[in-house]
Amino acid sequence: MKRALVLSLICVAGLAFAGFAQTLTGSWITGVCLDPQTDNWPGASTLDSELIVTYAIGDWAFTSTTTLDGTGWIDQDFSVTGLFGLITVSSALGFTVPAGAFDSWVTTLGLNMAGVEFSGVFTLEPAGSSLVLGMIAGLGSAVEGSIDVTFGDGAGCDFDFVDVT
User: Fold this and answer.
1) Which residues pair with 66 in a beta bridge?
2) What whole-number distance in Å separates Cα of residue 109 and Cα of residue 112?
3) d(Cα 141, Cα 73) in Å, to the nearest integer?
4) Tens digits of per-residue pLDDT, 3-57?
5) Which of 14, 27, 62, 135 is 20 to 30 Å apart from 47, CA to CA?
6) What is the chain's alpha carbon radius of gyration, rounded to the nearest angstrom?
7) Counting Cβ atoms within 10 Å, is residue 129 exposed (0-12), middle (13-18) or buried (19+)?
8) pLDDT tens for residues 118-143?
């Protein structure tokens, strides 16, 4: 009797969990090329592969993109998109794996309120960083404005002030 009760509770908990579970999707694309006219065997084949996995929960989607080739793991990217109240958020972070190097991090925020669209884009790269703030408004013809602040001296990911436009 106890076993039947425990089994029933497990089934009910599993069904309840399945109702709250979110979406896990993805794709895996692999290309194999064989060249029979090549003299040496290791050079006769190439392999490229890309694995994309996205986990969606509510209004948010978290994605990981892994790129492989014949030499191994060559690139890794992470991204997230979603809503934070009225603000739309998008962020992407990239790495070059063999070099152990950081590629870039780009974060975009947007807000559309009462016919006025505000935006902000922050970019961090090895050669420096920038922040672009923008606004578009108007009835009929649009009025646009933006502020572009540049940081970094090109020698690394730093925040030394360079200029503002």
Assistant:
1) 51, 76
2) 10
3) 50
4) 444 444 464 445 444 445 578 999 999 998 888 887 777 777 788 999 999 999 9
5) 62
6) 24
7) buried
8) 999 998 888 788 888 898 887 667 78
